[in-house]
Write a structure and sequence with these properties.
Elements (H helix, E strand, L loop, with lengths): L1 H17 L5 E6 L4 E5 L4 E2 L4 E10 L5 E5 L12 E9 L5 E3 L4 E6 L3 E11 L6 E20 L3 E19 L5 E9 L6 E10 L5 E9 L6 E5 L1 E7 L4 E10 L7 E11 L5 E3 L3 E6 L6 E3 L4 E3 L4 E10 L5 E9 L4 E5 L1 E7 L4 E10 L7 E11 L5 E3 L3 E7 L4 H5 L2 H26 L1
Keywords: Membrane, Transmembrane, Transmembrane helix
InterPro entries: Ig-like_fold
Protein name: S-layer-like domain-containing protein
Length: 430
């Protein structure tokens, strides 16, 4: 048994002696060569927020290596960029870099990686060529010191590298809006919106059309919403007036609208500027109230109904006419009254002649009345329906004397008596 074990040990030892020693490799030269470039377009417009992909490439080469049985293999190659970090700086460009520095890791020779940076181009950025700056930091194996045949010490070198990345900012019309005012813009009516629009960009917009556009959810609806300018030069300011209406479900408050210009650019293409959102003040709804006391009539009477209307809205109305709807027990051949122009807070009076049916029930009635008018842009409008109260009650004895019919009969009787007396006196004198 001992002889067998001794034979096995001798065979194994012989194999180790006969096998060639494993060779190690080391590289004597070849550092990382790092370059950066923007992938895709590098042309941007003022106001853009873009994602810029940046390619980091290591084009280092292994120039010389040694292979020997007494060399311990290195864990890293000298042409590998280790722990690469990239930061994008604005440099002299009119931009804001929104992304933080990015840690990439290792980039071996002959390989590359791509990182994305979010960049906001200033909305008033002048057109031209600019350079962003890529700040790159990495380490590489600069030297390895071997001790004997089983240990090694590494020496790494840190590299800080800046490389410029050219970008182009294209010329563009950029709008700046100021002095926004409104005139007669009220809920349910049409009015004017006036504003100053300035081209603060670097493009001369040809065949420019300045437009007013609605915003989702806003009751302000443009109706005459474009102004043409043959050329809109950089630095030029225009005063423009638009027409807009406000839907009936609006309120008296400030609402957003958008302003945009469509134009022909330097390449002959039709483009649009970025929209600018501004607020416009909307006045309250045109409204009226009946403020008069109820008129009093009696069954069978032909009389007058007096109704006073107050303009409780926020704007003047023009050429107003009031109307009543005479229904049973009322009839009328005079159901319309001219009121003229009515300013906010003003009270006007309308008088209508009606006849009350003989069988009218004694109670208080509500007669429908409305006002038709024209707004500041001469659009015909109709107010909401209102109620005017009329009391039907039985006249007292004294009231009979104030009845127009009774008074007419009395006049005729008096005139007849006077004529009779005059005739008798004249006959007696003959």
């Amino acid at each position: 048994m001992k002889i067998k074990y001794m034979a096995l040990i001798l065979i194994i030892a012989a194999l180790f002696i006969a096998a060639p020693a494993s060779a190690g490799t080391k590289y004597l030269s070849g550092d990382p060569i790092i370059t950066v470039a923007i992938s895709g377009t590098n042309e941007f417009s003022p106001g853009d927020e873009v994602t810029i992909p940046i390619v980091i490439q290591n084009s280092g080469l292994k120039e010389m290596k040694i292979t020997s049985s007494d060399i311990v293999d290195r864990d890293d190659n000298p042409d590998t960029a280790k722990m690469v970090t990239v930061d994008l700086l604005k440099n002299d460009a009119p931009v804001t870099v929104k992304s933080d520095p990015q840690m990439i890791g290792d980039i071996a020779a002959g390989s590359s990686t791509t990182v994305n940076f979010i960049v906001k181009i200033d909305k008033n950025a002048p057109a031209g060529e600019y350079d962003l700056l890529a700040d790159i930091s990495y380490q590489y194996l600069n030297y390895a010191e071997q001790f004997g045949t089983d240990s090694i010490r590494y020496y790494y070198k840190t590299v800080e590298l800046d490389q410029e990345l050219p970008i182009t900012i294209k010329p563009m019309v950029v709008l700046e809006v100021s002095n926004v005012t409104t005139d007669s813009l009220n809920v349910g009516t049409e009015g004017y919106i006036t504003m100053n629009v300035k081209n603060v960009g670097s493009e001369s917009g040809k065949n420019a059309v300045i437009k007013l556009e609605t915003v989702d959810g806003s009751p302000v609806i443009p109706t005459d919403a474009s102004v043409y300018e043959s050329v809109f030069e950089p630095g030029e300011e225009k005063t423009v007036v638009f027409k807009a209406s406000v839907s009936d479900d609006g309120e008296a408050k400030n609402y957003p609208v958008q302003v945009v210009v469509e134009y022909t650019d330097y390449e002959g293409e039709t483009v649009s500027s970025d929209a600018v959102t501004v607020g416009v003040d909307v006045g309250g709804k045109v409204d009226f109230e009946v403020v008069s006391e109820p008129s009093v009539l009696s069954p069978g009477e032909k009389g007058k109904i007096t109704i006073q209307y107050e303009n409780s809205g926020a704007t003047t109305v023009y050429n107003a006419q009031a109307r009543i709807s005479a229904v049973d027990p009322f009839t009328s051949n005079d159901d319309t009254a001219y009121l003229g122009d009515i300013a906010p807070g003003e009270v006007v009076t309308a008088i209508y002649e009606v006849t009350v049916d003989d069988e009218a029930t004694l109670k208080t009635y509500a007669i429908d009345t409305e006002i038709r008018y024209r707004d500041a842009l001469d659009n015909s409008q109709i107010s909401d329906s209102m109620k005017a109260q009329v009391v039907i009650e039985k006249r007292s004895g004294m009231d009979i004397l104030t009845n127009p019919i009774v008074l007419t009969l009395v006049v005729f009787i008096i005139v007849g008596i006077g004529y009779f007396v005059w005739s008798r006196k004249k006959k007696n004198n003959e």
